[in-house]
Amino acid sequence: MILALVGNQNCGKTTLFNSLTGSNRHVGNFPGITVDHMVGSVRSTKDCEVVDLPGIYSLRPYTQEEIIARDFILNEKPAGIINIVDATNIERNLYLTLQLIELRVPMVLALNMMDEVHANGGTIDIICLSAALGIPIVPISALKGDGVSELIDRAVEVAKNRVLPSVHDFCDNSSPVHRCIHAVMHLIQDHADRLELPSRFCTIKLIEGDSDMVDRLELLTNEREMLEHIIVEMEIETGLDRNAALADMRYTFIEQAVARCVVKPQESREHLRSLKYDRILTGKYTAIPVFIVVMCVIFWLTFNVIGSFLSDLMSKVIEALSAAVDGALTNFGINPVVHSLIIDGIFSGVGAVLSFLPVIVVLFFFLSILEDTGYMARIAFVMDRPLRKIGLSGRAFVPMLLGFGCTVPAIMATRTVSSDRDRKLAILITPFMSCSAKVPIYSVFIAAFFPGKGALVMIALYGTGIIIGLLTAYAFKSTIFKGNPVPFVMELPNYRIPSPKSVALLLWDKAKDFLQRAFTIIFVATVIVWFLQTFDIRLNVVADSADSMLATLGQCIAPLLSPLGFGDWRIATALISGFTAKEAVISTLSVLLHTSIDNLSTSLTSFFTPLTAVSFLVFTLLYTPCIAAIATVKREMGSKLVTFGVVVMQTGIAWLAAFAVYQIGGLFI
Amino acid sequence: MTLDELKPGCSGIITSVGGEGALRLRLLDMGLIPKTRVTLRKVAPMGDPIQIQLRGYELTLRIEDSKNIVVREECESV
Asked: Which residues, numbered 51 to 70 in chain A, qualify as contacts with chain B under a Cβ-Cβ cut-off of 8 Å?
């Protein structure tokens, strides 16, 4: 049995999902839908799966996410819907509920954050509200886990017995809207029955002017004229146009139900607290300084304090492990080629990458805190105006920030950007936001050439990426992506303390993902590189890696990189391996230079000057994203040609930027 | 007057919601319909967008888009 979890954004949907499923979840794929859904088995109930649909405000196909959610319910026909509603913001949340009820699917309403309502002196009469809406209601606190098991029991019961919502009408019997709806329903009943669609849902769609529905129902010309006539009559009588009249009908119904069943709390403490925080966090003079400080602190903590401490610890452990295995293998007298594969290939390659796991996890930790507390929405609010200048909305800022963690989820997060145009533009420039997989490369070069100036160099690099991204966006805005950015209508949720469980699960997902990549893509890349480097074309073990197969390949590319100041074949080879995953640049370098990660920095000083190091860093910052990111771009853009264009464009920009750094820098040094 | 012309801290009652297409539908869905009371909370640090309060929650929209919403001023704070 499949249950769909539907609700507004910021209503605790993900917390409830985590609470229902624990770590028992996977990314599910449903036919006909190009998007991944999180699917989890419910812990307490057998054969019951919950699908976490994107957070939406309405079933109108306005954003990509709304289309996904609507199509899932209509096409996949889940056995039931769990509609999660934020009790502290009940009016707007119930708007979606009414639309879901129209779909005629068994559903249960999960009234979340009831503890907050009570704490502020409010009450909600569950029986009264349940009767008004015609669906069962279970009060819960997703954060504390209260009521969650009762919720799932009710949902399973309702789905098993196919209990449909018992209320159909959301309007006064005497109102013009009511007459209009019934007249239209009467008109199309046969068509809807033939297609086995809920007639009321079809009616509402027709009144809203959904031309898709007109075609689907195959209405005759006279029926279409009749339909238009009925609607126009209603518009004249109500003095509202069709869409406003329907929205008015739903909100009026909700207001009446709420007036009967809900004792509204005083202005809630959480809300007042949010307003107080906002005085500083989005204040006229304080907002931007605070934002810059927050970002700097996050970067400083990630790269100079926590992350680097944990990374050092991790690389020491790996070093010790490697030494122990090395000793054991030597004592055992194993074949020197196998010994080389294990120690020089696998241990130094995968080990080098693994030691950066802590930095990535710490960065994701901070990003998820920003998102879950509600501060991300404030960033969008503050940054909307400058982003508009380059043709984007404040919404696009959040995915771009995520790009500092990993390009793949960042590009996926562009789904929250409502217009297709903004979304594509955001996808194109997100790869310029330096992802955390490039951090290992920066760290090693900083240790070698700019010791003690880590934070400064990092900020300069990240800044360069941002500036190039903005320039690119600006160029696109005035060429391919002409036209205005779309509306920006966004909720500013109350600040909340994130649920430790949600944060922990997210970090676990990220760490797992990284480890999987480390032991699959990077492992394979490391072994291939080791193989190419250890053998020559005749498959003889080479004494000097300059005779190896890899040298030959690197030598072909190296001349292209000479104008940038790093024409060595080993560097060219490392950059090629970075195509599989950016971390591999460092692992390849350490394999090619016959050195461990601790000594890599020292070895690099004989290949680079500080100037060529900067040129190299700029090139790595900007050149083509890794395979995983390219695959994501392709999926989101839906075009191979565009994706290929992205790769070529980025590599071209990287080459030009590094060329400029090296040539102009050379004039001064 | 339109929504953006309210003074920060002042309320108004919506009398009509204009605009077209996706923007208008989104405004309606978010509860910005005639007879609803809205309060202009603040203007973003860079002068756009604005933050408003309605139906007990906070919403942000751009000045340009808020010009579609006509309100009758009911300023309590002065």
From this structure: 57-58, 60, 62
B44, two tokens: 């973003």
Give CA–CA dist A192/A206, Å, rounded.
Answer: 12
CATH of the domain at B61: 2.30.30.90
- C-alpha A172/C-alpha A326 separation (Å) is 81
Residues A416 and A336 placed together within one structural domain of the fold: yes
Residues A305 and A252 in one domain: no
For residue B50, being part of any structural domain is answered with: yes
Number of domains observed in the structure of chain B:
1
Q: How far is A571 from chain B (nearest CA, A)?
A: 45
A16-30 pLDDT, tens digit each:
988 888 766 666 555
- Extract the tokens encoding A467: 């500036």
Residue A591 and residue A479 in one domain: yes
Q: Is B21 left (phi over 0), alpha (psi -120 to 50) or beta?
A: left
Residues A364 and A466 in one domain: yes
Can you give the residue range of the structural domain that contains B27? 3-73
From A88, A274, A287, residue closest to B45, measured CB to CB? A287
**Res A32: pLDDT:** 42
Residue B56 lies in a domain: yes
Residue A212 contacts residue A190 (beta carbons within 8 Å): no
Quote the pLDDT of residue B28: 92
Q: Are residues A533 and A630 in the same domain?
A: yes
Range of the domain at A232: 176-263
Residue A282 touches chain B, beta carbons under 8 Å = yes
Q: Are A308 and A389 part of one and the same domain?
A: yes
HEC readout, B2-58: EHHHCCCCCEEEEEEECCCHHHHHHHHHCCCCCCCEEEEEEECCCCCCEEEEECCEE
Q: What pTM was estimated for this model as a whole? A: 0.81
Q: Rounded to an integer, what distance in angstroms lies between the CA atom of residue A590 and that of residue A351?
A: 11
Comparing CB atoms, the residue among B33, B44, B55 nearest residue A385 is B44
Place of tokens 């019934």: A182
Per residue in A441-492, pLDDT (tens digit) is 998 899 889 988 888 998 899 999 999 998 998 888 877 766 655 668 888 9
| Percentage above 70 pLDDT, chain B | 96
Position A33 pLDDT exceeds 50 = no
